[in-house]
Amino acid sequence: MTRVAHTRDELAAALDAATGEIAVVMTMGALHEGHRQLIRVARERSPFVVVTIFVNPLQFGPNEDFEKYPRTLDEDLAACRAEGAAVVFAPGRDDVYPGGAPSITMNPGPLGAILEGASRPGHFAGMLTVVEKLLRLTRAGVAYFGEKDFQQLALIRRMVFDLELGVEIVGVPTVREGDGLALSSRNRYLSPRERTAALALSRALRAGAGHGDPEAVLAAAGDVLAQEPGVRLDYLELTGPDLGPVPAEGPARLLVAARVGATRLIDNVPIVLRKEA
Ligand code: AMP
């Protein structure tokens, strides 16, 4: 049975039923197979999985899609029930921020200033602030996040390490459509024509991943993106596996962000760099 809590008191009462470790999957709702995969992976280890559904105003910029972000609570609750979540926490804004917008927030540091942080000022401060609050409110011992939002995952790991939060963070590989498009709640904004153009992102990452030399990786991926007029590139970057400098050889990450029509999409893949003959 899945219990639904809308207030922090209801959440506390529902959590009192937990006997072992509490696992949390944090979402902004409009749940898809990517979210459901996080719940499934969490369920494999933890009988008591809490799913949070909260569109966090703090992590949206003034010109972003907070107002029109999809809200589909009834379908989301059905998905959480089907996946065997113990609790769904779907709070209102005042339950998460009872004092209004917090005056003390997280500073994401240098890792938060690059890539998404450069394009979306304030996004990571708002994200980390709500993640820290939700980790406490849900009393989580372990939390599951998707690699789809790779920089988010890296920043959360860093926050937990730097601030001794004592929570295990588990990353889950990106779930994709059959044609490669990374699942995202924002995909529903795409027209059929835009969806076709959006496939260039995953196609570019695949093309890049076919190479071992950093320059060849970026050239191959860049070529694919340049051929798709419907895609306005924000960044295409190769980094180390933790978003640091690119290593000469071994694991690395290739990340892309672009606008397709009015919709901003991100994606990334692991890459193994090797000396090419
Ligand atoms: P969101 O609702 O977009 O804030 O995402 C909630 C969680 O689901 C985050 O940890 C995301 O990284 C994760 N997630 C979103 N899309 C996917 C996907 N396609 N595959 C795996 N995880 C995902």
UniProtKB/TrEMBL annotation:
EC number of the protein: 6.3.2.1
SUPFAM superfamilies according to UniProt: Nucleotidylyl transferase (SSF52374)
Residues where beta-alanine binds: Q59
Entry's localization field: Cytoplasm
Recorded catalytic activity of this chain's protein: (R)-pantoate + beta-alanine + ATP = (R)-pantothenate + AMP + diphosphate + H(+)
Coiled coil, from the record: none
GO cellular component: cytosol
Residues binding ATP, per UniProt: 28-35, 146-149, 175, 183-186
Any Pfam family matching the protein: Pantoate_ligase
Main location: cytoplasm
Residues at the catalytic site: H35
InterPro entries: Pantoate_ligase, Pantoate_ligase_C, Rossmann-like_a/b/a_fold
UniProt keyword annotations, A-Z: ATP-binding, Cytoplasm, Ligase, Nucleotide-binding, Pantothenate biosynthesis
GO terms, biological process: pantothenate biosynthetic process
Protein's job: Catalyzes the condensation of pantoate with beta-alanine in an ATP-dependent reaction via a pantoyl-adenylate intermediate.
Description of how the protein assembles with itself and partners: Homodimer.
Family, as annotated: Belongs to the pantothenate synthetase family.
PANTHER family in the record: CYTIDYLATE KINASE/PANTOATE-BETA-ALANINE LIGASE (PTHR21299), PANTOATE--BETA-ALANINE LIGASE (PTHR21299:SF1)
Note: The reaction proceeds by a bi uni uni bi ping pong mechanism.
Name of the molecule in the record: Pantothenate synthetase
Organism the protein comes from: Actinoplanes teichomyceticus
